[in-house]
Structure formats: structure tokens, C-alpha cells
Amino acid sequence: MQVLLIDDDAKLPELLGPYLAPHGVTLHYAPDGPRGLVAAESRTFDAILLDVMMPGMDGLEVCRRLRAKSSVPIVMLTARGDEADRVVGLELGADDYVPKPFGARELLARLRAVLRRARPEVQAEKLQIGQLSADVPGRVASLRGEVLDLTGLEFDMLVALMRRAGRVVPRDSLLAEAGRADVAVGERTVDVHISHLRAKLGDDPKNPSIIKTVRGVGYVLARDGLALAHLVVP
């Protein structure tokens, strides 16, 4: 995902860039509105993060000019709490609005949400890893043709792992990867849900072969483990 950040706070890309990169997001930066418009025309971006309160040309004017030429998803960033500013931004064509200060995980979830709405191919996304499949818009997962009885959060976590099958998903960012930054994260929240998910996949709790733990890092959906997967029937 190629994302352009237009914001006069030079520290923001330094904070966001390192967090977003491991999640497949390359962050490009422009420090003001005019240079942001030039950058937006110089290449194709998947989304634009746009600050409202910038000196000179503010974010609302940048949004208006961007919308006159492009349908690229725009997420407005602002420290303002005034509802009128939020309404104006949305009326000008912004796709979402995130007030500062915000968490990087929430921002990642918002980016993915606007892309899901903007891209028809994501709306029709179907994942297949071995005999494990997931119909994302239909929110149905199956193993060896048998529908899995998953909670909403378990389904979202499984989809996040399937999208990055064979690669480690850090424990502290798995919920954001699943687009569930709204879920309160306790010390054991992710581990408990992974345990439930393993049980429903028929994974050995003592020596899991489907969802493996990478100690001190996170979890990985192992492609080879799915070749041996079996469904535990209650």
C-alpha cells in the first residue's frame, strides 16, 4: 500500500513510517498543501492522509483540489474537535476523519477500512490456503469443506493471518491487522483468542502446526501445517 501523508508536523512521518512499514504500507511525505498536490499528481497512491490545520493552503482546500481530479481515498487528520470542520471535510469528499492524537494501530485499521470500501475487488475477497478458505464479505470460513463456527473476532484474526500466510504477524499488532483496533487489549487477549481459534481448526494445543507461535514476536499461519489439518467435530 502506497500512502501519501500531507502534514506540516515533520515528526509524524518519523513516528508512523516505522510502524506502518512492517504492515505493508510505504509512507510518502509532503510537508504542506502545495507540495502535497504535486506529490499526489506525480504517482499513484492507494490512500492519502491529510492534515486539516496547515499554514497557507489548509487541508480542506487540498481535499477540494484532490477531489476535483481524483477518487483516491482520503483520511483527514486534525486536532480540531469542531463538528463543523469534520462535516465540511466529509462534504468535500474525504472518506474518513481521524482526530489527533490517534494511535498508529487505529490509523492502520482506518486505512484498511477505506480501502475495503473503495476497492470492489476487496469487497469480493476470497482467501484460500490449502483446504482452509475464507469468504471475507460473507464472513464464512471453512476447513475441508466444513464451515467453522467462529466468533466475529476469531474470523477477523483468521483472515489477518491468512492474508499474511507464511509470515509472522506481531502479537501486538494482530488486532489492528484484523481491522479490530476497537477491541480492548488485555495482557492475554490475543493469546486467548488464538487458543480458541486453534481449537476450532483442530490444531494441537501443545504442538500447533497450523497457527504457530514465534516466541517473543507473534504468530504465523503455516501453509505446510494446513496440509495435515483436520476438523475437530464436537
What does this structure look like?
By secondary structure, the chain is α/β, with parallel strands linked by helices. It folds into 2 domains: about 1-120, Rossmann fold (3-Layer(aba) Sandwich), CATH 3.40.50; about 125-225, Orthogonal Bundle (Arc Repressor Mutant, subunit A), CATH 1.10.10. The protein contains 10 helices and 12 strands. β6 and β7 form a beta hairpin. α2 (about 35-40) packs parallel to α3 (about 60-70) and α7 (about 150-165) crosses α9 (about 190-200). The longest helix is centred in the middle third of the chain and has 15 residues, at about 105-120. The radius of gyration is 20 Å and the shape is elongated. The model is unreliable at about 230-234 (pLDDT under 50).
Mean pLDDT, all residues: 83
CATH first level of the largest domain: which class? Alpha Beta
User: Could you say what the CATH topology of the largest domain is called?
Assistant: Rossmann fold
Count helical runs: 10
Q: Could you estimate the helical fraction of the residues in percent?
A: 25-40%
Q: Give the C-alpha Rg.
A: 20 Å
Our count of domains comes out at 2
Distance between the termini: 41 Å
Would you summarize the structure shown here?
The protein is α/β, with parallel strands linked by helices and 234 residues long. The protein is 39% helix and 21% strand.
Features of the shown structure:
234 residues, alpha/beta, Rossmann fold, Arc Repressor Mutant, subunit A, 2 domains, 5-stranded parallel β-sheet, 4-stranded antiparallel β-sheet, 21% strand, elongated, disordered C terminus
